[in-house]
Amino acid sequence: VLGTRGAVLVWLGRVAEAVPLLERVYAMNSDPMSRALNACCLVLAATSQGRLDAARLWLERARENHPASELLPEAEAAVEALSRGASGAVPLSR
Known about the structure:
The structure is a single chain. By secondary structure, the protein is mostly helical. Helix content is about 70%, strand content about 0%. It contains five helices and no strands. It has helices spanning about 1-10, 15-30, 30-50, 50-65, 70-85. Helix 1 (about 1-10) packs parallel to helix 3, helix 3 runs antiparallel to helix 4 and helix 4 packs antiparallel against helix 5. It starts with a helix and ends in an 11-residue tail after the last helix.
């Protein structure tokens, strides 16, 4: 539930509320797929705040946990956009 709530908060642009939830649930999860999804949401949160180093850290964690995560392409695109100087905000797929 925390991960879902965190993801929705990121999607709504309420990143300050989302990050603590997502960090907490990432630490609590033992399932690699769930951890990867949480990490990808943290990537999107970090890029929306312009925090490239944090976004890269979470992207690496997502890849380590589940390299085929369905949210990984969006997380990678957000990091790439931010590193090019564009807005890192990439909306979540619906």
